[in-house]
Amino acid sequence: SNALKEVVDLTFDIFKTEDLTRAAQVEPLEEEIDYLQAELKRRHIKRLRKGKCTIEMGFILTDLITSLERIADHCSNISVCVTQVRENLYDTHSHLESLKSEPDDSYFNRLEELQKEYVLP
Question: Quick one: CA dihedral 76, 14, 5, 59, positive or negative?
Fold first, then answer.
């Protein structure tokens, strides 16, 4: 929830200020949220196998974390759109690929920081 709050707050600020330098911070955060979603699902399956959780509770958990991950996806889309409108470009996929291939590794450095910050218990 903290990672999601951060990405939503950041996205609102980017939308309001059109700060393109901060827009690049959204995608690594969205990727970390993707990882957290997958890890939470993996842990749930592990609990199911051990009999520590029910399938019914799993439906609720899966629906919830899928919805939260979709919010992060929307934040990524908003960030990309703000950037592309400003630059008069409209190719989302190439923009995201260019973020990940920056020569200074800023994307991966930020992703590494986020992985340390948002560790599941």
Answer: negative
Where do we find the tokens 């930020």? Answer: 110
Cβ atoms within 10 Å, residue 12: 12
What is the rounded distance in angstroms from the CA atom of residue 25 to the CA atom of residue 121?
24
DSSP string, the chain: -HHHHHHHHHHHHHHHH--HHHHTTHHHHHHHHHHHHHHHHHHHHHHHHHTSS-HHHHHHHHHHHHHHHHHHHHHHHHHHHHHHHHHT---HHHHHHHHHT-TT-HHHHHHHHHHHHS---
8 Å CB contact between 24 and 73: no
Predicted TM-score (pTM) of the model is 0.77
- CA-closest candidate to residue 12, choices 28, 26, 1, 2: 26
Burial class of 81 by CB neighbour count within 10 A (0 to 12, 13 to 18, 19+): middle
Instruction: Encode pLDDT of 17-42 as tens digits.
Output: 988 889 889 999 999 999 999 999 99
